[in-house]
């Protein structure tokens, strides 16, 4: 994510710098030159980053392979949007500062505006008004996205307005860009960004995101193996392409509520049947067992994700760590490995649960591992023995041996393990994690 954002910012700054070097900074006084060039650079950065965020929102084909997972694509979408809002705010503040500069330094040193036709002048006035209005709304939406207590069901509907706001800002950028830009690298970059972002926005407004990867079906079973867990099994139609153990999908049980990402907790048996273990983490998932019933229609989009057995390093010791409902991808792994136990890697599965004696997943894990002698199950009961730490995990394994950790669970737990295990293994360990944080 960071290299991609850094590269884009550097590309935009380079195109702006090229235009500055070729055409000069202008003939105005220094304050007005800084004001004008600051407007250009901040505007270019804002619209380029917002275009990237818009494209990432459409879940384009191949992005997972390029970035290493859909979770990384969504993090890129999120931070591109945040940075875009930051540069848009700077752009707006600079625009508002012209009265201050005029008061202190006068208007004599201000550069002349482009000499444009009456039609374009009218469009520029409209673009300026639309851009200012859209910036206010974009900033409000970024704040709501970062405010985790704001209900997802409301945020999701508000977020649907983002493509409209993008088109308003794209119009603002297109009509207010200096006419000389369109024959320079900055103009070419702007044209590419606006074209890609506009296509993505229209695609989103048309409801086409993920449409080619959707399958319809019905719910065939609903149960509650634990107090806060709902197990749902669905049978899908012929549009389902199958999945790899460990992947996830966007599942829609109710069109008003919309799609939610859930890990597929079962292996692909070739019968287009998929199972989900859904933990009560919010209002929607808490009420899910009472909202759905056998025979109900369901739409599943996917599969997505790179948390796959096939990506394991067979030469490294496998350490699998699950926290709570993070056990779901490993359930799918074990289910898939039962078809060919001899192909199962030498692995240690660490399952962290609050109450091991009452956890229904413990019995299921024990049953699955009985058929897989190369997989050793470790159940860590946090109520009795405290939370699993990186130091404790390191004592259970040979840190001199190259290892690969696959983790699924709470983010804070992952960060604690990642940093601690990196110190213990000293460069001989790889840490894999998918973070299903879609806002």
UniProtKB/TrEMBL annotation:
Signal peptide: none annotated. It is a multi-pass membrane protein. Residues 212-310 form the FAD-binding FR-type domain. This is Ferric reductase. Keywords: 2Fe-2S, FAD, Flavoprotein, Iron, Iron-sulfur, Membrane, Metal-binding, Oxidoreductase, Transmembrane, Transmembrane helix. The chain crosses the membrane at residues 33-55, 76-94, 133-152, 164-182, 188-206. Its main location: membrane. It comes from Aromatoleum bremense. It is found in: Membrane. Its cofactor is FAD. Pfam families: FAD_binding_8, Ferric_reduct.
């Amino acid at each position: 994510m960071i290299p991609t954002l850094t590269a884009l910012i550097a590309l935009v700054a380079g195109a702006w710098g090229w235009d500055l070097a070729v055409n000069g900074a202008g003939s105005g006084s220094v304050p007005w030159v800084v004001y004008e060039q600051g407007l250009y650079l901040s505007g270019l950065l804002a619209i380029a980053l917002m275009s990237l965020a818009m494209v990432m929102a459409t879940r384009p084909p191949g992005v997972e392979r390029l970035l290493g997972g859909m979770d990384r694509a969504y993090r890129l979408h999120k931070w591109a949007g945040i940075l875009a809002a930051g540069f848009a705010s700077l752009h707006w503040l600079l625009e508002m500062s012209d009265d201050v500069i005029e008061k202190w330094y006068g208007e004599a040193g201000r550069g002349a505006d482009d000499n444009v036709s009456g039609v374009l002048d009218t469009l520029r006035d409209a673009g300026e008004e639309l851009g200012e209005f859209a910036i206010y709304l974009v900033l409000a939406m970024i704040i709501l996205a970062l405010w985790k207590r704001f209900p997802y069901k409301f945020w999701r509907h508000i977020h649907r307005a983002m493509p409209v706001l993008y088109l308003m800002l794209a119009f603002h950028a297109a009509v207010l860009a200096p006419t000389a830009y369109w024959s320079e690298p900055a103009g070419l970059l702007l044209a590419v960004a606006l074209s890609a972002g506009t296509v993505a926005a229209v695609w989103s407004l048309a409801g086409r995101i993920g449409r080619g990867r959707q399958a319809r079906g019905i719910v065939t079973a609903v149960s509650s193996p634990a107090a806060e867990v709902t197990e749902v099994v669905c049978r899908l139609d012929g549009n389902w392409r199958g999945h790899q153990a460990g992947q996830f999908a966007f599942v829609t049980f109710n069109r008003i509520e919309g799609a939610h990402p859930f890990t597929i907790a079962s292996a692909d048996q070739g019968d287009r049947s998929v199972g989900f273990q859904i933990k009560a983490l919010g209002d929607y998932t808490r009420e899910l067992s009472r909202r759905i019933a056998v025979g109900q229609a369901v739409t599943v989009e996917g599969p997505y994700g790179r948390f796959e057995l096939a990506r394991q390093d067979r030469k490294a010791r496998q350490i699998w760590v699950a926290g709570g409902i993070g056990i779901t991808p490993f359930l799918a792994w074990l289910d898939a490995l039962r078809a060919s136990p001899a192909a199962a890697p030498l692995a240690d599965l660490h399952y962290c649960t609050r109450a091991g004696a009452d956890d229904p997943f413990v019995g299921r894990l024990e049953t699955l591992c009985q058929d897989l002698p190369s997989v050793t199950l470790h159940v860590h009961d946090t109520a009795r023995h405290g939370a699993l730490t990186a130091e404790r995990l390191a004592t259970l394994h040979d840190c001199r041996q190259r290892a690969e950790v696959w983790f699924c669970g709470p983010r804070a737990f992952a960060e604690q393990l990642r940093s601690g295990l990196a110190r213990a293994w000293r460069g001989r360990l790889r840490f894999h994690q998918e973070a299903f944080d879609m806002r």
